[in-house]
Amino acid sequence: MTTGKHDDDRARAEQTAQKQRRLQDEQDRLDSRKGGSSGGGQQDAAQTGAREHPEPPMPGQKLEKPGEESQLDPRPQFMAPDYQGSEKLRGMSAIVTGGDSGIGRAVAVLFAREGANVSIIYLNEHEDAKETCRHIEAEGRRAICIPGDVKNPTFCRDAVRQTIEAFGQLDILVNNAAFQEHAASLEDISDERFDETMRTNIYGYFYMARAALPHLKPGSSIINTGSVTGLRGQGELLDYSTTKGAIHAFTMSLASNLAKKEIRVNAVAPGPVWTPLNPADRQPEQLESFGKSAELGRPAQPEELSPAYVFLASPVCSSYITGIVLPVTGTPG
Questions:
Q1: What is the Cα–Cα distance from 81 to 205, expressed in whole angstroms?
Q2: Where in the chain are the domains?
Q3: 27 in Cβ contact with 197 (< 8 Å)
Q4: Mean pLDDT of each 10-residue bin along the chain, 333 residues long
Q5: What's the pLDDT at 269?
Q6: Is 321 within 8 Å of 68 (Cβ atoms)?
């Protein structure tokens, strides 16, 4: 790709980030007039992992969209230090959109630990993306960082092409990039914001899958990040929940469509997870109870989600699984 094209993708990504910050500011002004809202249950948090994870009250803070993980306190736990790789993805290569931080970063690290080279697609969080790539390389695998906007189908094709040029193949696509902004009322959601949510969360998944498909072969897989909000709804995330429900339907439909090509398609539906997405959405006082309403009484850490992606990506683990939406929600049912 020419330097000029790289610069164009970076410029478009920066424009999108600026638009998302403006939409965030508009909602903040609405919240200040209406007084905002808060939630969360009362139960104690459960520590069920290999190491202790932070629990509510979470520190109140506000991140500017799209959200830098380096600014989040406490830093999300993504390294899964007790997870031992066993070459489940040996010789494979993967694309992870939204791979600069949060769930995407945790998935990229474990993919590398299992033997895969990883291409990180992100908007404009350059330092976060570089850190993720350093962690991939520390696992002994190759990494490339590609900034751009998944709403642009040309960029999606170029990102796939760059991945093929770097690694020689593509075996796994993880669609994970997302835009989220809460609203107390349907009337607060402007056409521009609705369009940004739909095009990022739905069109971006569609464009990336379409661009990747010609390069996938039997045994390859696509994994989409859905959400508990797509399973149960969420009153203040009307547009976001709509897109996540659509992602679940897209997953099941594409799985049926690609079954004869021997390509599997699945989704993971996380509950509340400590990533930059929510501190870049909620007010600081609302963030303190984030995750408390889950049955386990706390938000998940990204490293508690990433093994599910490894499981669904690996042919030795899930060769007979396609079209499922796997809930990882911290809550029964």
A1: 30
A2: 3-31+90-328
A3: no
A4: 80 91 83 56 75 88 84 92 98 98 98 98 96 98 98 98 98 97 94 97 98 98 97 95 98 98 98 86 79 91 98 98 97 82
A5: 98
A6: no
Query: Are the CB atoms for 300 and 328 separated by under 8 Å?
Result: yes
Structure tokens, 84: 């031992």
Quick: pLDDT tens for 288-320.
888 898 999 999 999 999 999 999 999 999 999
Strands 264-270 and 325-328: parallel
> Which residue type is seen at 63?
L
**42, 55, 74, 79 from 47: Cα distances, Å:** 16, 9, 17, 17
The predicted structure's pLDDT at residue 283:
77
User: Is the torsion defined by CA of 22, 56, 288, 37 positive or negative?
Assistant: positive
Alpha carbons 254 and 247: distance in angstroms, whole number: 10
Nearest to 220 by CA among 112, 94, 86: 94
Euclidean distance between CA atoms 99 and 143, whole angstroms: 11
205 part of the active site: no
How many Å apart are CA 229 and CA 293, to the nearest integer? 13
Preceding amide of 147 cis, omega within 30: no
The answer to whether 74 touches 127, Cβ cutoff 8 Å, is no
Catalytic residue (choose from 122, 207, 240, 309): 240
Amino acid in the structure at residue 210: R
Q: How far apart are CA 215 and CA 218, in angstroms?
A: 10
Domain 3-31+90-328 has CATH 3.40.50.720: yes
